[in-house]
Amino acid sequence: MPYATLGSMIRYLRKQSNMTQAVLAQKVGVTDKAVSKWERELSYPDISLFPRLADVLGVTADDLLREFIDEEKPSRLLQIFKMSHDLRTPLHIILGYAKMAELHCEEPEKLTKYLAGIRVSGEYLLKVLDYVLDVSHLDDRMDFEGSLVELSDYLANNYPNQVSNLEKFDFSGKRILLVDDMEVNREIAAEMVMLTGADVDYAENGQICVDKVTEADAGYYDLILMDLQMPVMDGIEAVKRIRQLPDEKKASVPIIAMTANVYKEDRHAAFEAGMNAFVEKPIVMEVLFNNMKDYLE
Description:
- By secondary structure, the protein is an alpha/beta fold.
- The protein has helices at about 5-15, 20-30, 30-40, 50-55, 60-65, 75-105, 110-135, 140-160, 185-195, 205-215, 235-245, 250, 265-275, 285-295; strands spanning about 70, 75, 175-180, 200-205, 225, 255-260, 275-280.
- Strand 6, helix 13 (about 265-275) and strand 7 form a beta-alpha-beta unit.
- Helix 6 (about 75-105) packs antiparallel against helix 7.
- The protein is globular and about 65 Å long.
């Protein structure tokens, strides 16, 4: 049966299992206060907690994600999650390719590729906007319009005249492991990082990342740039596995989260797992390089 909200579903399943909020919090690895806020709809569980939360409650992660307010309208959790991640991901591609086009404006082949990527990402972004407007009630549309105003202000403040002041960033001789499941994201980030003189290696998910760090010599990788949301193994779990490696030098490699999951809960989960820093997508090159500089110099 559909529940009124995700919070009411959590509360119902918790009581069905004769668990107190404190017991549920302990099993999931959060505070009592966090569970209380979930059930009162004051906040939502971090998306990375869904598998563990679902297992404790005796349902699947898909059951939690498919929670509906009614049969026609996805829960606010899904709307908020799609709003953030599905807006930031194509924006990261658009802004990244725009920056690459600026740096390679005299190379027609590369310029054509970047412009095509901008167009495709723009079309995808339009579909996301159409979806959100279609599934929202009138009040939600007004909230969405407010989000767009905030987004416009953010872009105006952060991307009006981004200057390529790269001379102060020289990471020559450093090897960076870039972890992201999307090829286009890896390409954009790699081109940015290579402007500093660093060498870049790739991993398509957290499991591959852990395997590469485990198999490489200690100190082979100077820093890891880690996406959070990936198949097979997400970034949070990958960081936990690396921090538990028996070789202390491998276990202490600097790791920077580089992600479109930007809620406070995402930051908390990243730092709790052992991340050293957190950089939001869309990526601002100087912000990324300044964070890298803290650990490479």
